[in-house]
Specification:
By secondary structure, the protein is mostly helical. The chain has helices spanning 6-9, 20-34, 41-55.
């Protein structure tokens, strides 16, 4: 519960007050990973890191 209202405490971090943006991002990532079933665990980590680097570019 202590993290429920954290977006009010740290407004400079621009944390959304809903999880809709994060949920959409993770849904898209899961879809992309399903399409790459044959990746080894180490390659999946690289894939995920690159996905988030490209997703949150400003």
């Amino acid at each position: 519960m202590k993290y429920l209202w954290i977006f009010y405490d740290y407004q400079e971090l621009c944390i959304p007050n809903t999880n809709n943006a994060l949920e959409g991002t993770f849904t898209d990532l899961k879809t992309k990973l399903r399409n790459h079933n044959g990746l080894a665990k180490s390659r999946r980590k690289v894939f995920i890191d690159e996905y988030f680097k490209n997703s949150f570019r400003s």
